[in-house]
Amino acid sequence: MMADFTQLGRAALDTMAGAGHELREVERVLRKTGDTVVGEALRGGGVFYEWRHYPDDDVYDPETHAQFFYHAHAPEQQRDEHGHFHTFLRPRGMPLGIAPLLLPELAIAGAPAAPHDPLLAPVAQPNQGGNNDKLSHLIGIAMDRNGLPARLFTTNRWVTGETWYCAADVCAMLDGFSIDMARPSWALNRWISGMFRLFKPQMAELLLARDAAIMNWRRRHRGKIHVFEDRRLEVTSAVDIDVAAQIDRVELALGSAA
């Protein structure tokens, strides 16, 4: 998966370049005290336990309605990573007109499957932004054991208990992810917000691949289990990343566009 930066306009490249500068600045400041963004996520949390959210109540910006937490799975499930961030956007932070997607299978957590002809197109239900509960998972950010981002990924609905939105709508949500607060860590909040600006092209590709994987799985296992609840399908798309290499690609694309 390699996003084509030559297809991006100057404004998008400038935004990505600015985010790259922001990430480098955050990492520079943290490095002076031997800290990392993972350490910032865990700060004050005591013993690091598998599956526990760090911080306990997640990080939530009440103005943008963006949300994230950090956690780790059992060691045998972690591959080469230390843990990962899960990121979300709640309905009041979503662009106008976006609605959850209700397939014949269960798409909205805690809601019964709607009667629907499986041969027909999926049904969109009104987005009840008033309750702000039907949040969408955006992207997972896996961190290596040195506290650096190693991989971006998407997941099936059961993993986070999210409400399902189609990939095009989730792509439209990416610009809305911003944590503009000092707590629990200004450095961490700036860093994770910058990741969404710098890696937006790859994130969009991952979301489209997510929906393709879901629909392919659904076709292959139709009638056996609800695709959104199938524990055999956990990670729906993933790509390895390198911040320095991404910044270099952006600078090269900007040079070509000059």
Task: Explain the overall architecture.
The protein is of the alpha+beta class. Helix content is about 35%, strand content about 20%. The protein has helices at about 10-30, 35-40, 155-160, 165-175, 185-200, 200-220, 245-255, and strands spanning about 55-60, 65-70, 80-90, 100, 125, 135-145, 150-155, 235-240. The strands form two sheets. A six-stranded antiparallel sheet has the order 1-2-3-6-7-8. Strand 1 and strand 2 (about 65-70) form a beta hairpin. The longest helix is centred in the first third of the chain and has 23 residues, at about 10-30. It is globular and about 55 Å long.
Would you kindly provide a brief summary of this structure?
This protein is an alpha+beta fold and 258 residues long. The chain contains seven helices and eight strands; from the N terminus they run ααβββββββααααβα. Helix content is 34%, strand content 19%.
